[in-house]
Design brief:
Structural class: mainly alpha
Helix content: 55-70%
Low-confidence stretches: none
Radius of gyration: 13 Å
Strand content: under 5%
Length: 94
């Protein structure tokens, strides 16, 4: 795969259309795992910025969950999954 968008489009099963539209991330060469983890963290921050039981906040949480799941999946596709998972943890820590 040449880019993150292609990699995400190849995931099966495909996410529901509404979620797929919200999972847009900038194309990134190489370390998809970290790019996805950073995007997940951004969605989580958006959810936290809208406290309470709001639909928008719930959707941001779902997006964050999907993106971190994809990050872990991308990590498993690397030559050193353990190191890739460690990079994800490092990229998402405060």
């Amino acid at each position: 795969m040449s880019g993150l968008r292609e990699w995400m489009a190849s995931r099966r099963p495909a996410p529901p259309a509404d979620l797929a539209a919200a999972l847009h991330v900038h194309d990134a060469p190489g370390a998809f795992d970290v790019a996805l983890a950073v995007a997940a963290r951004a969605r989580l921050a958006e959810a936290r910025a809208q406290p309470g039981r709001t639909r928008a906040s719930a959707f941001r949480l779902l997006e964050a969950d999907a993106l971190i799941t994809y990050a872990c999946e991308a990590a498993l596709d690397t030559e050193d999954p353990e190191d890739a998972l460690r990079r994800i943890l490092t990229s998402t820590s405060d």
